Amino acid sequence: MKTEVTFGGVTVQPGEIGFGSLINVELKDGTVVKLPIIVMNGAYDGPKFVVSGAVHGSELIGAEVIRRVLREKVDPKKLKGLVVGIPISNPLGFQAGNRSAPQDGIFPNISSPGDSGGSITQRIGSAIWDQVTSKMDLRIDIHGNMRPCTAFCLCSLHDPKTREMNEKMGKATGLTVVYSPPTGTLEGMGGARAVGYKAVYSVSLELIAASKVTEISGDLGSRAIINVMKLWDMIEGEIEKQPEEYVWGPGWVKNAGRLKVNRGGILHFKKDPGEFIKSGETVAKIYNPYGDVVEEITFPHDGYIRAWAAAHQAVNTGSSIAYITHDE
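Predicted structure:
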């Protein structure tokens, strides 16, 4: 039989939704900073699901997707299970508009234990893990990239305890899945890294225009989450396809990490994310301040650029300029 649930300062009865704070921290002047959470306690028994946004404080789109799912699309009186939404997982970075918190230069790693006695952000991460993530059955972490980029799902197959269900979750989102095989690189996989602490089935969404609230990313992200909830029989309905123009490649491609440069200068993109690229094709050029080409960057194998990583197109030697995949 369903019972009430409590997370931080929020207690919610079955069939209801509640709002509040998971943890409060204080700044140097005593200002209290809250970690907002939304708790939807379904009327019926079922899986426990956490959805998080703004782990990188400058990425706004996750909060919008969580709003759509929990305030518009899911009825707690019809829900089987529990959904905890953490729309702003890094409130300090969010306040500053930065990827990391300015107080300690990090962001909370919500897929693993933080440090309850550590820095201010580590304590936030610890609260998220101890009170929420470690008690869940499944997790989706929502991110975004700066344009030019595509939308996709990140899926790690490293942990044998979660491998099969991670794959099913990734495919259920309807987005192209960028996967890391058991012995493949986890570089560029972010929140989809293998957890290793508890078998929490987990994928990450990477949406378009991270710092903007856009109709397309809100639509893609909310459909992906609703599809996963349908997969787990938390809500009724058939899994829906994503719009074809936002699904690229064969739909299931292997992560290939990052593409880096050897010279510094001004970067010019020559290929679009999601466009098939043959091995050896030029994907970018670097010009020096005088207008001379100092480096042509070629693709190391057949595959795709999932997102250009250079938000600012002035780059240094060794800069990562793109996240890339193989073609299968």
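Summary: Helices lie at 61-73, 91-96, 120-131, 163-172, 215-231.
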